[in-house]
Amino acid sequence: MTKSKLPGEATPNSESPLKDRHGVVVVGAGPSGLAAAYRLQQAGVDVIVVDPGEDVGGKMKSREVNGFHIDLGPTVVPPTHTNMIPIIKELGMLDTPGGAEVAGSIFGIAQGGGKFVNLDTANIALAMAKTKLVGLRGKLALARIGFDVFRARKFVRHPNLGNAAALDTSSAEEYARHLDPKLYDNLIDVLLHSQVGAPGSTLSKVDLLRLIFVEIGRPGPTRAFTNGVQSYARKIAENFPVSLKTTVEELVEHKNGVTVTVNVDGERRVIEADSAIVTADAHSSAKFLTQLSESGRAFLNSITYTSMTNVHVGLSKPTKESAYMALIPASVEPRVLAVVFERNRSQKCVPPGKEMISIYSSDAIAEEYWDADDEVLTKTLIEATENIVPGFSENIEFTFVNRWPRVVSASAPGRYKELEKFQRGISHWKRIHIASDYLGNTNMDSATSLGEIAAKDVLSSNLLSK
Ligand SMILES: Cc1cc2nc3c(=O)[nH]c(=O)nc-3n(C[C@H](O)[C@H](O)[C@H](O)COP(=O)(O)OP(=O)(O)OC[C@H]3O[C@@H](n4cnc5c(N)ncnc54)[C@H](O)[C@@H]3O)c2cc1C
Predict the structure, then answer these.
(1) What is the pairing mode between strands 396-404 and 308-315?
(2) pLDDT one-digit tens code per residue, 301-357
(3) In this structure, are 243 and 315 located in the same domain?
(4) For the segment 142-196, what is each residue's pLDDT rounded down to a tens digit?
(5) What residue numbers bound the domain in which 38 lies?
């Protein structure tokens, strides 16, 4: 039994899609795995996706509460998502009613007490050049970073940052603070917080160079899925079978293929395939990739992820802010990373005349309150957000809590050098392809790109049976 259906939700897979043999097994139904399966299916490959969840999407999770569409994880598709946007278009969801519709593009940088400095991300390069958040020294430092990004473009173009190992010499904070401390505090750190989900001290310089390479110079509209980002996952998964409630317990490569041991809703099954693509996180992969060397497993287990707790707050009336997302410098409020004004992000995701504020906690708060009651966590995050948006909590209709154990892999300096070593250690694997989030600090777009690259590698390996 592999089919799982939640009340009122479309089921992406047909009855019992798991067979004894497949062309390719894709491990994980997040944006990476779904993109990989989509491209393989288009090439005529017998592909199946397996995932322990009750629905497809990985971190692309949405819920509907009282007519409010809540995205619990990823939420926006900026113009820089150049790998994901073509797929959205192919699925007929780009700029169509109920699909990925043009959304707000203003970032506000919170200054405390209800004040914000707004930046239009429709043209982030121009917004950064014009902003008063940094002085002349900061602008010169930005130009220097731009030059470094230009020199590094060959290495940071690829979402697999093992390619950029040689540049992994300092943390993002050490690198940028050295150029101009004010630029770092007022702009770089808050951008890293919002775009990568972690402070610059836990990220490599490589993450910053890649972020800027990807983000700058691609003006255009930001989009959001009116019916929630999970609608994209469900739509793409209509194209191939997905076996839900299915956990990979062992994946081993041999001369003629791969053997995959899965636990399907409590029942163990062994299936064969020509190849496999792995998109599961580092810690799960360390468990089921039993052919890893001791040092390979140690590397995967050494990867740490940031965590996050979110509270989504439905309000009976809109706030006066014009930004769709407020980035919160730690000096303004250390407990909150970002606040999304959902009505400004996508008017149609909240009922007319209403508002929803989504509050994203810092890693430290997530750790401290992980086991706390929802009420305690909600009270703490609402109190913190009152310092940013005073008075918003007078109009609360409902609150909805979500906890994320793994947001992004923390990449202290040297991490990508270790990654390159790890990849050299598994370079003799011919049939197991890795497209997981620890290859770089992913967003939905780089995850999509990793999945597509893995699909291409499988197709060019000539190891698929006819
Ligand atoms: C709060 C939050 C906000 C975000 N905002 C944005 C945003 O606005 N824009 C954006 O582009 N990105 C955003 N992201 C990042 C984005 O969600 C991730 O980069 C992306 O989901 C990574 O995709 P993935 O497919 O690599 O991994 P995932 O989405 O994590 O999927 C991996 C899948 O592997 C499965 N798996 C694990 N172990 C096994 C096993 N043993 N067997 C089978 N399957 C297994 C998991 O169940 C999971 O479904 C956000 C993330 C969070 C948490």
Answers:
(1) antiparallel
(2) 999 999 999 999 999 999 999 999 999 988 899 999 999 999 999 888 999 999 999
(3) no
(4) 999 999 999 999 999 999 999 999 999 999 999 999 999 989 988 898 888 777 7
(5) 21-61+228-292+426-460
Q: What is the position in ligand 1's atom list of the atom closest to the CA of 450?
A: 26
CATH number, residue 43: 3.50.50.60
In a domain, 397, yes or no: yes
Tell me if 219 is assigned to some domain.
no
pLDDT digits (tens, 9 = 90+) for 240-292: 999 999 999 999 999 999 999 999 999 999 999 999 999 999 999 999 999 99
Does 194 map to a domain? no
Pocket of ligand 1 (CB under 6 A): 27-33, 50-53, 58-60, 73-76, 247-248, 279-281, 284, 288, 308, 404, 407, 436-437, 442-445, 447
Distance of CA 433 from the midpoint of ligand 1 (Å): 17
| CA 447 to centroid of ligand 1, rounded, Å | 8
333 and 377 part of one domain: yes
Alpha-carbon span 443 to 154, nearest angstrom: 20
Q: Is residue 7 part of a domain?
A: no
Instruction: Give me ligand 1 centre to Cα 70, in Å.
Output: 16
Amino acid at 333: E
Write out pLDDT tens, residues 413-461: 899 999 999 999 999 999 999 999 999 988 999 999 999 999 999 999 9
User: Could you give the CA distance from residue 150 to residue 458 in angstroms, rounded to a whole number?
Assistant: 31
0.85 surpassed by pTM: yes
Can you state the angle between helices 444-460 and 31-42, rounded to 10 degrees? 40
CA distance 279 to 446: 12
In eight-state DSSP terms, residue 289 is -
Question: Domain holding 366: CATH number?
Answer: 3.90.660.10
Distance in Å, CA 53 to ligand 1 centroid: 12
260/343 same-domain check = no
Q: Which two tokens stand for residue 433?
A: 């392809």
d(CA 221, CA 318): 23
353/377 same-domain check: yes
| Rg of the chain, C-alpha, whole Å | 22
Q: Which atom of ligand 1 is nearest to the CA of 262?
A: 42
**Atom 5 (ligand 1) nearest CA:** 74
DSSP class of 114: T
User: How many domains are there within the chain?
Assistant: 2
